[in-house]
Amino acid sequence: MTAEPFPSTAEAKLELLTRINRAIAGAEQQPLPPYPVSAPLSREAVLHQFEDRILDYKAAFTRVLAGEIVGAVAAALGGARRVIVPPGLAAAWLPAGLDMLRDDPPLSHADLDRAEAVVTGCAVAVSETGTIVLDHGPDQGRRALSLIPDLHVCLVRGDQVVQTVRQAVDTVAASVRAGRPLTWLSGGSATSDIELVRVEGVHGPRHLHVIVVE
Amino acid sequence: MSDHGGLHPAQPFPAAAREQVVKAQLRANLRKVTTTIRAKRANVVEELPHWEQLRTLGAATKDASLVNLSDRLLQLEQSVRARGGYVHWARDAKEARDLVARIAQAHGVDELIKVKSITSDEIELNKALEERGIHAVETDLAELIVQLSNDRPSHILVPAIHRNRAEIQALFNAELPGEGALSDNPAELAGAARRYLRHKFLTTKMAVSGVNFAVAETGTVCVVESEGNGRMCLTLPEVLVSIMGIEKVLEKVEDISVFMELLPRSSTAERMNPYNSFWTGVTPGDGPQEFHLILLDNGRTNVLADEFGRQTLRCIRCSACLNVCPVYERAGGHAYGSVYPGPIGAILTPQLLGMHDKNANTLPGASSLCGACYDVCPVKINIPQVLIYLRTEANLQKGLTAEALAMKGLKFMMSEGWRFEGALKLARVGQGPLVRGDAIPSLPGMLGGWTQSRDLRPFPKEGFRDWWKGRSQGTGPADVNAAPPETVQKAEDGPIPPQKKEGGQFDAEPPREDTL
């Protein structure tokens, strides 16, 4: 960061730190209590819970065996043809006849806006909350890819579904330490700003389709 | 614009509340919203049997950050810089908004997009930018409604909750170009906002956001939202500026999980809100390639310096306390005058501004001390205790007032039995001209406030002590069952005193009159 184009705030920093140190002088840190854990559920119960939560967000949910992925993706895409595919997503999972937009070289915002759908993988998912976490690895692509199209089809391996938020954070902690961004999705875009009436779909993908693969 | 920005109430709470409580539509809206969200919240909290332990951990985690605050902030600065971001320090609102304006000017932008942020309202950012010819577009639906109608937010979570769909329909039909005639259907109105903002998301060069949490260890910043407008602003522009109160810092990556459990359930009453974004400095090829983090004090170190009031800084702005507060439910957010309404605002605003502020000083009085806010607070801020503590502080600030003198007089009079009885005798005589029928409809002078919305019962001709004396000089045991004379209080027309149950336990509190 040479030739900093912005005024230095060193003086403010010094004063702020002085105020803080004066304010907390003598305060001691208390030991943290242990993190409370949920009673563990069976694998099958975790997947059922995940499905229940996803449906509760009014997102779509399909559970398939590995051999059925292509058919499930085709069904989830419905009539969508212009589909964004992150660089690292296995081509073998995608149905034929798509107008695939590979983000290499990077697509412009206008290109992304013309896409009808995006298909991605994920880093981890949480059954207690029905949350999918993207760490934007090669099978998920950069953040804009899963943001702009109206339909997001997300492939989740069965062994990626954990029960608690805590387990999910532990799983992606290394990604965060490596400087990667995270996006947590729980259902599609929604608002309740007008008379607290929930409206699905405002700015992000209005439709989320989760496919769990075993 | 003051150096403290949008914190400062323009008038004392009682005056502001008086203007708001008469708005029937507002009260109906608020009642609907708060009761709906209260019920939803109770359901999702019940799902987690260890909710209380999560609260305790949430409180302890925030406390740990506060007692190590300078180290955490220095580490945060270092981590953000290591990932290619800039970090700036701002002592007050003015310094923060000047920083944002300087960054915008350096990039020659005359329009920027914003994620809903109370901190940016706190520093009155939009107004300051407008004065410099930079238009800030709010992209959260409720904030857009507030902005288009030149209104002010009234709730932390749902800022336009005081507006109903017909008002929003009229507003959008007048303000959103090219939309034609919209119906009052919320989905259609949201769709209009989507179309209006889409082009701005895709083409605007700079965005401003607040910060829900920041991780010192890695420099990771988090914004929690629902609509996707946050993701748009945080991802698509070239330049991103995030403004955070210094109390938002956490120690390590793992700390975010307890708040991702506590915040959505307390705030929107969902298991998880639709979108949470986390980013660390600049990610090459992904998202804004220039990132600025502004660390804002604006009174927070005042709060930190008070060992008892310090817990207020644990607040994660979930708004659960607003939704359970009987005072908020009736008066609404605007009565608090500050960008921080409700119970949390009643303790945060006066502490941020300093207890000498004459208007903010009245906010700790905006409570019936029912304690519901403490029960729901996900980080266990003992709001009722802080309210009482601040009321004491406010009274000490005021020095010797007529009220304080009256209280001193009362203390003197009541500390000796004979003085008290004498005073009662005097009162029985003195009340004569005030009594109308069997009530005193209005008291004179400063006591008039008491009878503003209720009648006072006159002192009875004979008090309990006189009756008791008379009884013991009477004829014996039979009199024990004799009814007292013309009773002090008729059960059916006054508050019923607490009844002792078997085992000497008192029932719950007696029913109270509405205190507002």
Automatic annotation (TrEMBL), chain A:
The protein's matches in InterPro entries, at most eight in alphabetical order, are given as: FTHF_cligase-like_sf, LUD_dom, NagB/RpiA_transferase-like
Q: Where is the LUD domain?
A: 112-213
The record's listing under SUPFAM superfamilies reads: NagB/RpiA/CoA transferase-like
Q: What is this protein called?
A: Lactate utilization protein B/C
- Protein source organism: Deinococcus grandis
From TrEMBL, chain B:
Name the residue ranges with Basic and acidic residues bias: 454-469, 489-516
Against Pfam families, the record matches this protein to: Fer4_8, LUD_dom, LutB_C
Q: Please give one Gene Ontology molecular function term for this protein.
A: 4 iron, 4 sulfur cluster binding
> Which parts of this chain are annotated as the region Disordered?
451-516
Please cite one Gene Ontology biological process associated with this protein: lactate metabolic process
Q: Start and end of every LUD domain?
A: 75-295
Determine if Transport is one of this entry's keywords: yes
Q: Which residues form the 4Fe-4S ferredoxin-type domain?
A: 313-381
The segment(s) forming the Lactate utilization protein B C-terminal domain are 401-472
Task: Cite the SUPFAM superfamilies for this sequence.
Answer: 4Fe-4S ferredoxins, NagB/RpiA/CoA transferase-like
**Keywords associated with the record:** 4Fe-4S, Electron transport, Iron, Iron-sulfur, Metal-binding, Repeat, Transport
Superkingdom of source: Bacteria
Q: What Gene3D superfamilies has UniProt attached to this entry? A: Alpha-helical ferredoxin (1.10.1060.10), NagB/RpiA/CoA transferase-like (3.40.50.10420)
Coiled-coil region(s): none
Tell me the PANTHER family matching this sequence: LACTATE UTILIZATION PROTEIN B
Put simply, this protein is called Iron-sulfur cluster binding protein
Q: Which organism is it from?
A: Deinococcus grandis
